[in-house]
Amino acid sequence: MIHHMCVSPRYLLLRLSPEERLKCWQGDPGMTAEEMTRKLQQDLADGVVYPIGHCDNFDPHRGCLGHESLSDES
Fold first, then answer.
1. Which domain holds residue 22?
2. pTM of the full predicted structure?
3. What is the pLDDT of residue 13?
């Protein structure tokens, strides 16, 4: 079983500047830095995490739920 990585809003709030947060966001392209900060704060309070890359088996509260490995390795 393999799992995709995810990132917490806490990391984005603590480690990235408001401008850097906007660059990595793939949501509303018209969002301001202040709106992004409020969204991250709300998502943090709600226990939401974000996928890193594409994941078709992602739960916003638990992260990647897993995928069958493509190799024969255990």
1. 6-64
2. 0.78
3. 95
What lies within 8 Å, CB to CB, of 24 at 6+ separation is 12, 16
Asked if 6 and 50 count as a contact pair (C-beta separation under 8 A), the reply is yes
Residue 59 domain flag:
yes
Q: What is the pLDDT of residues 30-54, one digit of tens each?
A: 888 889 899 999 999 999 999 988 8
Kindly list the distances between the CA atom of residue 7 and the CA atoms of 12, 37, 50, 73, in Å, as whole numbers in the listed order. Answer: 8, 15, 5, 27
Amino acid identity, residue 36? M
Q: 70 in a domain, yes or no?
A: no
What is the chain's alpha carbon radius of gyration, rounded to the nearest angstrom? Answer: 14
